[in-house]
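#struct-help
A.M.: can someone run this one for me? Single chain, 236 residues.
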Amino acid sequence: MRVRHWTVLAVVAACAAACGGDNENAGGGAPTERGGGTAGGGAAPAIPAAPAVPGMPSPDDLGRAAETNAKTLRDMNAGKEVKAVAPADLAALLPATFGRHRREGEASQHVNSMGMDIAEAEASYPTPEDLDGDLRPDFHVKVIDIGNLKGAAAMGFTAWSMQTVDRKTASGWEKTTKVGDWPAWEEYDTGSKCGTLKVIVAKRFVVEANGNDASAERIREFVQSLDLAKLAALGK
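D.P.: on it. Structure tokens below:
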């Protein structure tokens, strides 16, 4: 799976687990005995717990932070406990084919970390070997449910939708646009014929499609091959 903007959440969860591993007394409590005894039958010497790392949060600190984040996000969602939709439901919206391109490399995941609840599904659509024409496009799409993220917490996914951009250069363009009724961000390089189209659906789902050796129009058609209305309905 390609690296994603929000996989850092999984890293945070892993760090929290690592901090709270076998050394339950990392905060300086009594040492823990291990093993069943010495060769002579006496008690095994106690192995002191590793000291706390200065500046690193303890598991209790991380737990309290997660509870605080969850409460803040719940308040931002009008008191509702918003859960990310099942990754399988997102994956079901990725079409089996797009033209002569067949879906490959499907992957999905759910991350609940530090009070944040997010899901994602993705797939690739490689170039058919017998495809004719000057262009040999391939596509990749990911669909992210940002779940309970709201306001500033969602800015990493939606900040571009809060501005109007229409920037053109000798090598391409970047602009805010629309796909149907949904706000979208389009960037395209005319030299490499590579582009990205992002769409925010129902203020909750982010669809990001990338096309290589493809026209901007074809990338847009690829995004429109997804049932965005059905995606929006998943958040109701």
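A.M.: thanks! Confidence is low (pLDDT under 50) at residues 1-41.
D.P.: also worth noting: Strands lie at 97-98, 101-102, 104-113, 116-125, 138-145, 166-169, 172-179, 182-189, 194-201, 205-212.
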